[in-house]
Amino acid sequence: MNHKMQQEFQPSDRLNEDIETTVSLNCSVLDKIKRSEFAKDRDRILYSRAFRRLQHKAQVFSNEKGDHFRTRLTHTLEVSQISRSLARYLFVNEDLVEAIAIGHDIGHTPFGHQGERVLDGVMKGEDDLGMIRYPINYGGFKHNFNGIRVLDVVQTKFEDYNGLNLSWQVLEGVLKHTKIKRCIVCKNCGNCWDIKRFVNDQAIIPRLYLDKRHSVTIEGQIVAIADEIAQRQHDIDDGFRDYSLKLDVDYVYSKIIEISNDIISEYTSSEKTSPEKDKRYEESLTLLNDLKVNLESHEESTKFYKQEILVRDIIEYFILDVLTNSQKNLQQISNLIYDYGREIVDQEFVNFSDVGQKMNISIEKLIKQRILNSWEVNKFDGKAHYITRQHFKAYYRNPLQMPDYVFKRLLSRIKSTSHIYDLELKIGSDETRKLKDINFDSDRSEISTLIETLKIENINKNVVIPEQSGKLFFKSERDRKPSTDDLLKRLKSINSQDVNKLESQEDLFLKCLLENNYIYLSTICDYISGMTDNYAKSQFKELYLVD
After folding, report:
1. Phi then psi for 531, rounded to 5 degrees?
2. What range defines the domain where residue 79 resides?
């Protein structure tokens, strides 16, 4: 198995096997240069191309608005810093926390969540782009699931080896930093993201603990909450920085004080108070009151100073709230569960207090009202949606518009489906060719036939159809007139989780068509999702604008 399973969390337990030491070193020096397995994971992510591309992927605002606006990279660094602070004071593994934090947003598309929504719509079969004849639900697209795909499939550390060979705890933490189910109570409805589509080694799936929405490591839970904290403060800070929003510092400052006052009053009102409740909320209310008092003490300061104070104090408040609440929760752990020889936690221990969560929700609501719902942000989102969708349309229509290495990757992937069914394509009037034998240097007509087959178009014309599957494509054996009604009806009833259940001889032919169709769509997805904002815009101009 490629995925390392850690036996101990201590960073000095194993010598880095990837470093070849060519000189003799004494034991004391060796002890100093040892890296934990999680430190190796962190470095593999940190030095990957996908990590560097985060520099030019938008957080909320386009990086072209100015050098001081957050990008996915600076957001990631802030999450990493907050995570390490919490890890240090909760006495857990900082290397693991940092590895998860560094990789948590690596699966993001260009333009943030708008790019993600476009890819999700196509991969879920809800957006046919005006040209997909058979839109099929392949489980959709979500940036945390794509993060697993980037780290476990797309990025490579060695030639002919998929993925970075990361520990399962890192992958599980990256996946769980945000939601993993579309629905509150999932009953295999077919609408949730399909993890099987995003991993290289299916054996890793049990270790992702998809039955639990929270991470099964304390470190993973820390990164998830640090992501929330980072977003609250830097959305406000960037909102102030975008002068077109006309977000008044005095208004936001007084609004945070007002929200704090209301929450404190709610928890200390006479009808709700009791000795038990007073003790339960004492620390969290004290922290919130300290925030309020400190803000009030600077109400007469300049706007610039109030802006700095507000951002700084919100970070400090949330870190202290999570820290004190989590310390209490962790004291309740009487025994740990052991699975795969590793200790895991089956509850969510790292989170806001009830008071802190109410504060978090209130600030998030304020941000949505005054920043995320603004004309400026929505104008950017609209452009992002349009450009991403146009990219997909262009590459779906003609994948040869993607770089050669992408199309070669596509050809390599579809050859792997020959074990399901060995498709035979019709080339010309009386010639056939195995799909697996078509390569990058094949005749253009062969490539065109292949592309139509991958789109599940003109199957009766382009593919040698097994006799038992003929009824899916023809009205009758007698007239042999093309008909796709039965096929369309059948395809619409299939979702991503059903594909692996197709086992009959008739179904294997259909399964091969579906898998090739998925590979076609997901290869385009991989290419688009890896783009930076700048590259996506430059390629859009090359695709659609006249020089």
Report:
1. -70, 150
2. 34-208
